[in-house]
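Supplementary notes (optional reading)

For those who missed the lab, this is the record we used. Protein: Tyrosine--tRNA ligase. Length: 478 residues.
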Amino acid sequence: MAAPVAWGWQHVWIRGSILKKKYQCFCNKVKFLSTVSGGAGLLSALNKRGILKDAFPDSAAQVQLPQLLQSGPQTVYCGFDPTADSLHAGNLVAIIGLLHFRSAGHNVIAVIGGATAQIGDPSGKTKEREPLSKEAVEENTRGIRESLQRIFANHELYFSSGSQKLGTVTVLNNASWYHRWNVVSFLSDVGRHFRMGTMLSRHSVQSRLRSAEGMSMTEFSYQLFQAYDFYHLNQHHDCRIQLGGTDQLGNLMSGHDYIHKVTGQEVFGLTVPLVTSTTGDKLGKTAGNAVWLNRDKTSPFELYQYFLRQPDDTVERYLKMFTFLPLEEVEKVMEQQRQDPGKRPAQKRLAAEVTKLIHGRKGLESAKRCTGALYHGSLQALETMSDEELQELFREAPFSERLLEPGVTVLEACRLANAIPEGARGYRMVTEGGVWINHSRADNPEQVLIPGQHILANGLTLLRVGKKNFYILKWLNL
């Protein structure tokens, strides 16, 4: 039996007056069928993993959408606006949702919003985005395309069995279809199908209209463009399912309404939960706590450490949501966690699985090397690290390349790295035990650097002064 439809009262501000409007909400909390066959089995599995939150229209979760998925390969899309040059952990649930659909044989489309990024989605925002130049959008689009293609490739390489028939992957830029429109034609052909009352009733619009900043016409028009994206993909790629975060629900509904009005076809929306930090803040660039998916912004080591540090009350949910481990295996990992929580097996498995998905096997190996070098004092890990890994690991540490002169002492090395002050004070810092070289205390200022001890096989000398001040010397003429 279909779940009941939610009814409510919405106050809509129109031309300075309050219009009280009773409206029907198309979304219902997802109550997926428990059968393990066909489309309902996929939706049920995603629901159990915490990846799906809501579905619309009302009958979607119960009857129509499972039947559609069971009838043959479908096309599912999700959009990503290039407002930065990398995606972040907040985008990861939607990407993983697409990957699950692909694993089930459905075709997926990732749309990069090269056009819509210049408008700015007001959903979840308290003020309007800063305008982006065309050049910035193009640069950001390249970074996000690289993110998506790398993650899809890693999933196919490391998380798919040879027996699986994966669906296709397509990455599109919506600027490719908007350049054919002019504003008069777009408003005449597309805008006439939207009603102001419905548009004003959207939560993202209402919250902004009540704010001191208000909402610009540019932002208000965003839902038209996202709706048209869905329509374009429906017409050109037979796409009938859109995936988005819960903050996108109003935009998804606009797309559903527009397609239904113009074509009479039934399409579907699915939302994924927003990922929040331990303090409840949404993970993303606006909140200032983004964990990026491109290496030049968040290294494999930093990504690995982020998931390794998740608290015990979060890790099971994240194992289900962010990894492709069967749920039975998740339960086994959590049982190990309960038996020996000090070893943190659940956090280690979570960090490894996510890092391999984002950065591949080499990225995971890099993260483990960096972890060993920094937290376990492993000289072997230090010796095998590349210059890129060194600079990622010690991102704030000064990096110097020097010629190695015969007889260079500990004191001279510290001064070459500008790690200690000149004169007697710097000398005392060494003699008093405040300097470490390659994880070993170096308290003799006159000690000549010894290859294999102070200078590793890769030409590295890692200096630490005090508890947290690192300096890297790279000797060039070994």
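If you only remember one thing from this example: Confidence is low (pLDDT under 50) at residues 1-38.
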